[in-house]
């Protein structure tokens, strides 16, 4: 059964019908948002059942749309939080990818600005590598980007999408070895992105992120994970009631290869490893449960079939 990411938007009245339908079909609700009288469900559903969900949602005035970034966590990497260096599109891009289903985090570098001192420290590098994709937002000057990008990408293991003031052709020419994605004409400017041409540029960034995500999903499909991250999310939510008391946004953050669990590592890592999934197989058998560099959270890194010889 192939699960695909979609978003359901509709009225709050009888939305539980849609939730029950998705769960009965074998799908998973990743996030649920209630805004006034509207409910937004970001979920994974069986590909063959999308039309059935649309048909049942229509009388409820609900809409089902493709959301390719559901189930991803993206790092928006800004060179600095200082007003002189902060690329203003940072917050706009972070918000825009959330609308398509992604969980985005802003990562501001301590030594991002300035060619002489530019670099990553160990904590910044580890935090970026905990995400599925990193979007680098650099400035307007070609020589500055060319000089800094080799240092800023050192040790980064996740796909990088490079955004900067020069056009795409220039970014490709000055980046060696190449990164996974490029979006040009997005530099540092002192305004919000709200004009039509600026919104088109945000759409271009989302399209490039989507392209890289789909490529990564294809790579994962060649050696599938031992268990679906969304299934693991439901299991942890059922077996660890304390997760329902967490007030942080998305206490269980689904990633492409695992989960971020927003509970203290020292107290909850061992119980998480011991949770049985099926037929005596525990989470610790098919994944690595490690401490996150982001606060005191837990990372669950699901191992592929080639390492466990198991698919649940």
Short description:
The chain has 312 residues and is an alpha/beta fold. Helix content is 36%, strand content 24%. The chain has helices at 15-24, 50-57, 89-99, 122-129, 142-152, 168-174, 196-222, 229-239, 265-274, 283-286, 305-308, and strands at 3-11, 28-35, 38-46, 63-66, 73-78, 103-108, 133-137, 160-163, 181-183, 252-254, 258-261, 276-278, 281-282, 287-291, 298-302.
3D structure, described in words:
- The protein has helices at residues 15-24, 50-57, 89-99, 122-129, 142-152, 168-174, 196-222, 229-239, 265-274, 283-286, 305-308; strands spanning 3-11, 28-35, 38-46, 63-66, 73-78, 103-108, 133-137, 160-163, 181-183, 252-254, 258-261, 276-278, 281-282, 287-291, 298-302.
- The protein is α/β, with parallel strands linked by helices.
- The chain folds into 3 domains: 3-66, Alpha-Beta Plaits (2-Layer Sandwich), CATH 3.30.70.260; 73-220, Flavodoxin domain (Rossmann fold, 3-Layer(aba) Sandwich), CATH 3.40.50; 229-308.
- A hairpin with a 3-residue loop joins strand 10 and strand 11 (258-261).
- The chain is globular and about 55 Å long.
Mean pLDDT across all residues, rounded? 89
Instruction: Please give the CATH class of the largest domain.
Output: Alpha Beta
Shape: globular
Order of helices and strands: EHEEHEEHEHEHEHEHHEEHEEHEEH
How many helices? The count is 11
Task: Please identify the structural class as seen in this structure.
Answer: alpha/beta
How far apart the termini lie comes to 12 Å
How many domains in all? 3
Q: How much helicity do the residues have?
A: 25-40%
> Which radius of gyration do the C-alpha atoms yield?
20 Å
Total strand segments:
15
Poorly predicted ranges (pLDDT <50, ≥5 residues)? none
**CATH structural architecture of the largest domain:** 3-Layer(aba) Sandwich
């Amino acid at each position: 059964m192939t699960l695909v990411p979609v978003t359901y938007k509709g009225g709050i009245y009888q939305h539980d019908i849609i939730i029950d339908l998705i769960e009965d079909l074998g799908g998973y609700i990743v996030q649920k948002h209630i805004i006034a009288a509207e409910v937004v469900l970001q979920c994974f559903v069986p590909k063959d059942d999308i039309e059935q969900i649309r048909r049942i949602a229509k009388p409820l005035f609900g809409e089902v749309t493709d959301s390719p970034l559901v189930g991803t966590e993206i790092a928006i990497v800004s060179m600095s939080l200082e007003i002189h260096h902060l690329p203003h599109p940072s917050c706009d891009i972070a918000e825009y990818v959330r609308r398509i289903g992604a969980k985005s985090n802003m990562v501001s570098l301590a030594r991002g600005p300035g060619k002489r001192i530019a670099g990553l420290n160990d904590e910044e590098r580890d935090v970026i590598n905990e995400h599925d994709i990193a979007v680098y937002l650099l400035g307007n000057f070609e020589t500055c980007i060319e000089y800094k990008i080799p240092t800023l990408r050192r040790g980064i293991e996740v796909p990088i999408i490079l955004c900067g003031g020069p056009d795409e052709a220039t970014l490709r020419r000055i980046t060696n070895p190449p990164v996974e994605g490029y979006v040009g004409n997005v530099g540092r400017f002192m305004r919000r992105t709200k004009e039509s041409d600026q919104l088109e540029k945000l759409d271009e960034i989302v399209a490039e992120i989507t392209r890289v995500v789909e490529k990564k999903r294809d790579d994962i499909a060649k050696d599938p994970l031992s268990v679906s991250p969304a299934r693991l999310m439901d299991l942890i939510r059922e077996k660890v009631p304390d997760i329902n008391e967490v007030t942080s946004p998305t206490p269980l953050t689904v990633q492409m290869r695992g989960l971020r669990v927003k509970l203290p590592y020292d107290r909850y890592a061992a119980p998480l490893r011991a949770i049985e999934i099926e037929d005596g197989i525990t989470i610790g058998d098919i994944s690595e449960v490690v401490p996150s560099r982001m606060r005191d959270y837990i990372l669950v890194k699901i191992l592929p079939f080639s390492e466990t010889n198991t698919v649940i």
